[in-house]
Amino acid sequence: MRKEKFKLAAAFALMAIITPSTVQAMHIMEGFLPAKWCIFWAIVTIPFLVMGIKNLNKIFKEQPDKKILIALAGGFVFVLSALKIPSVTGSCSHPTGVGLGAILFGPTVMSVLGIIVLLFQSLLLAHGGLTTLGANTFSMAIVGPLVSYAIFKLLKKNNVKTSTCVFFAAALGDLATYVVTATQLSIAFPATSGGIGASLVKFLGIFAVTQIPLAIAEGLLTTVVYNLLLDYKREGVLKDESIN
């Protein structure tokens, strides 16, 4: 157990080293997207939120002992997604933390936890915004968890080691979030020459400089946390079949 705690501390230290502190960085910030795209992304997120609320209520009714673990997954998202590196005007790079919850509870539950985190960050920390809440939720709390969940299940099905499954699920879920964010920005602000495609290449290129190392660090940290949960389960501290 001491060895695992050391690994956890080392992973947090790695995340802190590669993530400089800055108060200016945000998700897509308040008022940055045109109104029509704010409305569009808000509408797109609604079906996922409805499904997420239904699944979350089902878990609370049938497995109330999972409430603490769900709260842990939400806290993990809040802490990691509050770490920021300015990357593009109007947005930033940061870890997401959604992979852990997606692996444990499925992607739709994370849509609910994600929008709660993003709402609190926009109101209390001035990160992101209310007008861009739909766009930020879609990229970080819908697409990210869907990719993480799909990668984890695919690798597990092919008998890949669990730690490897968790690493790639978390890392690729993080990268998927920023592919979507870059796409959202490209659609809203197409380049004068080359249109959306040229704009997308530009945004992805700028994001890649900071997001690739962040995704690797998030994958490592998520793997350590997941392994700690496995240890607690073996010791009888946790009794949760979603951790295996």
Explain what the structure shows.
With 244 residues, this protein is mostly helical. Helices cover 73% and strands 3% of the residues. The chain has eight helices and two strands, in the order αααββααααα. It has a two-stranded antiparallel ribbon. β1 and β2 (91-93) form a beta hairpin. The radius of gyration is 18 Å and the shape is globular.
Helix-residue proportion: over 70%
Going across the biggest sheet, name each strand in turn.
1-2
Number of strands: 2
Mean pLDDT: 82
Q: Which stretches are low in confidence, meaning pLDDT under 50 for 5 or more residues running?
A: 5-26
| H-E string | HHHEEHHHHH
Structural class designation: mainly alpha
Radius of gyration, rounded?
18 Å
Largest sheet: 2 strands, antiparallel
Number of helices: 8
What gap, in angstroms, lies between the N and C termini? 18 Å
Strand content: under 5%
* Silhouette: globular
Write the layout of secondary structure elements.
Layout: H1 2-18, H2 35-62, H3 67-81, E1 85-88, E2 91-93, H4 98-105, H5 107-124, H6 133-157, H7 162-188, H8 195-234
Antiparallel strand pairs: 1-2
Helix pairs in contact: 1-8, 2-5, 2-6, 3-4, 3-5, 4-5, 4-6, 4-7, 5-6, 6-7, 7-8
